[in-house]
Amino acid sequence: QSKIDEIIVTATRRAESLNDTALSIAAIGGEEIARRNLSEMNDYLRTVPGVNIMDVGVSLNAVVVRGLTTNPEGEGGVSGTTTGVYFGEISLGGLGVKSGNADLKMIDLERVEVLRGPQGTLFGSGALAGAIRNIPVAPNLQELQGNIKTGYSNTAKAGGDNNKIEGVFNIPLIDDVLAIRAVAYRHDTSGYIKNIAGTQLATNGSYNTFGGRAADAVASVGGAELYQNEDDIGNVTHTGGRIAALWKPFDELSVTFQYITQDAEQDGQPFVQLNLGSYQQSVLQVGNRIPALDGKEHGVKDDITITNLVADYNLGWATLLSSSAWMEEEGEALDDSSYFLGGLPLVQPFASSADIFTQELRLVSKLEGDFQYIAGVYYEDQEYSQASPGYMTGDLTLSWLLNPVDPTNPKLGDQFFDRTLEQLAFYGELSYDITEQLTLTGGVRHFDYERSQHFVTTEGFGDLDILGKVEETGTNFKANLSYQPNEDTLVYAQWAQGFRVGNAVLLPSLSGANSCDANNDGILDGTNTPIKDSFDSDSVENFELGAKLALLDNRLQINTAVYRINWQDIPLTVASPTAACFSSITANAGDA
Predict the structure, then answer these.
(1) Model confidence over 305-325: pLDDT tens digits?
(2) Least buried of 54, 178, 241, 538, by fewest C-beta within 10 Å?
(3) What is the C-alpha to C-alpha distance for residues 492 and 480, in angstroms, rounded to an integer?
(4) Cα angle value 226/55/232 (rounded, 5°)
(5) Bridge partners, residue 229, by sequence
């Protein structure tokens, strides 16, 4: 092969060559995906310059582009992730049982596009650092196709076997009119963490990061069965698939229906305690001690279903696209939270559900002449709920969280949390060819959202009932000037904005007689942070120069960019240093 293959991308909502696209973008084509045996974001994002992925368990993966993050594990639950992740036309934002991104396996992909920098006009909220587009292979209307792939490996020491099997089948039901493509897979991935709770008991070693001694805890709460060694912590089984039907009744119209399902089960929580040895933790096996938990052990379950309907109509002078998506997620988790009580056994089961609907209409012009445009409207409606009671086992009199109703009841109390988000956005881009080589593009996106949170606690967790709401409107802009003196050279300058929606702040009474604002000045004591019941969206402003060069008869390609990003109003947790307060708030307190 004498030349590098050309990759066609649709990051600008038009099909064009990767090296003719005036933005910082990396693309991985279908042949490379198959050759490198890629099947999840963990496989390929680590190889893309300017991108990192942090994976600490089911639904706790975070994609970090150009370093824009403050708390990768927890950002998703506060205001949303900084990088947008897409599967086809589907935004996966909000599908993370514990925060982070949806843990979908990416099987049978046409290509992956990684857009670096804020994508605030075309992709909207949550793409202030960039966007990851996972584009699946479409059903083939003409060919019967199929393949099966399997693999095996082994993780040494505290790990075990890794197995995976994937199958793809495509059948044209009516030539050139109707076809179905089905994907099914199962991945069994070993853990690599060792739970040494039994060893800690036998040696009376430190139980937790606060230095509690294992034997002392057993003497206080009873139950040596709480302390058992266990390998392979963090092993995960992903089982899922999807089916897509493509209907093309005539040349101008294509309709794609897609149904996706995946169940993920993780054993334990794959974290390491730094006061122990490498890849080790000391976690109590408390599930069997509490009848209400029905023998559940530590771990995470995450079940996702997605239904997507896309209609694409060629009007001749433009293409009109409609994408409707219905997403549901059911999650369960069981955490050893004993570190909250200095080592006394406390376990918190966790159950959550999410229902999300998104609708997008997009018109992309195909005009003859110097002007082209994109116009669209986007709507989303998210509902999320969570229940997280707390249970203690052992001698309940030793707990400062005694059940006030029944001190002999191991259930200390309940926590309930509900969150909603409704957003409407209008966007557009206009391109003008000043000359055959010089193109100017401008973009705008106007957004309007309302977000609410409701938090309730009972009994030992205190009696709280807090409702918060935030409403905000705003506008993002973009300007891009590109120059292409010949087919082998492209240089561009871009200024772009991006944003991420804000959120309500769930505040107990922090002002007045409360010790967090003793002088009643509206400032969290010991800080300069105002006490507010919400925080606004954070935003970025990106200044970028880039060049794309094809040399040596396209046997060498060089893509380069230099940029400066100003990140403003970053939501941070601000804790009061005042000993009497023992509280914190989330506020727009950071800049970078």
Answers:
(1) 999 999 999 999 999 999 999
(2) 54
(3) 7
(4) 35
(5) 196
